[in-house]
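Review form for a predicted model. The reviewer records the input and the model, then writes brief findings.
Reviewer: anonymous (R2)
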Amino acid sequence: MFAEIITIGDELLIGQVIDTNSAWMGQELNKIGIEVLRIVSIRDREEEILEAIDNAINRVSIVLLTGGLGPTKDDITKTTLCKYFHTELVFSENVFENIKQLLAGKIPMNALNKSQAMVPRDCLVINNPVGSAPVSWFERGDKVLVSMPGVPLEMQTVMKESVLPRLHQRFHSDVIIHQTFMVQHYPESVLAEKLESWESSLPECLKLAYLPKSGIIRLRLTGRGKDKNSLESTLNCEKEKLENLLGADILTEEDIPLEIMVGELLKRKKLTVSTAESCTGGNIAARLTSIAGSSEYFKGSVVAYDNTIKVSLLNVSPATLELHGAVSEDTVIEMVKGAMNALKTDCAVATSGIAGPGGGTPDKPVGTVWIAAGYKNEILTYKQETNHGRMLNIEKAVNNAFLLLRELIK
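Model under review:
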C-alpha cells in the first residue's frame, strides 16, 4: 500500500521553514504497513496544488496534504480542494464550536477565525483538538485524500488520534518490519564489499539499505510480507548471519543516537563524564545534555578555544603547546586529564583540531582533529584526518569522541 505526501507552502521552498512533517509521517505510516512512494513540496498556487493532487491520485491510493489551511488570503488549500472535487465550502457549526472553545479567553473571535469553520461539503470533516483548522477526508473510489494543517503539533495530533486509525482500518496493507544495525570501523564501500555475498543471498522479502552518518553506518534491514510471524522468523535468521559477519563492529541493534547509547552506558556503570572541547565548541556537551536525565552522569564542560584557557582551566602545559601545538595528541591527553581533575568526573573526552575552512598547514591540514578519552588511569586517542567541510568535520569529531569513550568504558 502506497501513499504520497504533498506539503504546501512557499516558506518550505525558500528554506524559511524546514519540512519535518514528512519525515514524521513516513515513520508513522510505515508502522501500519503503508509505504511513502513520493514526497512533493509545492507553492501556494492553485494550479500547482491541482496538478500535484492529480498526479498523486493517479499513482497511489493515499494522498496526504499538509499546509495552506490558515485563515489568511495566502491559504488556498480548502478552496482548491473544492475545485478539484467539484464541491463547495459550507459553514460547519460543529467546527465553529470547536474553534470557539479553543480561542475562549485567549484570542478574540473575528471574521478570519470564523472563516475556518467553512469546510468542503462533500467530505468527512474531522475536528482538530489543538488548532482551528479542521481535517478534510475525501474518498474517490478506492482512493483517499486527507488535508491536514501544516503546524507540526496539530498535524501529529490529528494523525495519531484520527487519520492513522482510519487509514489502518480502511486499507489492509502488508506487514513492514525494520531492523537497524549501527556499525563502526567501516567506510561504506568496504562494508558493502564485506557484505556482498550475504546481501546477494537475502530472501526476496528482505531489502538492505546503507545509511552512512559521520563516523558510523546504519544498516537497515527491511522485511515486507503478509504473515508477521513468518517475516520475523526470516529476518531473525538473516540478522544472526549478519551478527556473525560483523561481530563487535555492531554498536547496537537500535536506531538511536550515539549520545543516548553512551549515556545509557554511563548510567549503567554509574560513571560521571565531562568534556574539554576546542574545535567542537561545546557540541559534545550539547549532544549529551539534549537527553533528558543526563544530569545523572554529565557534570560539565570546558570549551577551551584559546590556548590561555587550555593552560589556566585545564592545566595544559605551555611547553606542550609550544613543542607540539594545540592540535596534537599530547595536548588532548593533557586536556582530558585536566577535565577529569577540574570537574571531578570519572571519565572525560577532549578534542582539538582544525575544523576549517582556514587554518590548515601542510603538516596539519584542515580536517585534522585529535581526540582523547580518559577513564581512571587509561587514555585512548584518535586522529581524525578527513576534510568534509567545517560542519561535517565537527559532527564527525563529536561522533568519534562518543565512539572512543564507549570503547574505553564498555
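Findings: The two ends are 43 Å apart (CA to CA).
Further findings: The chain has 15 helices and 17 strands.
Recommendation: see findings above.
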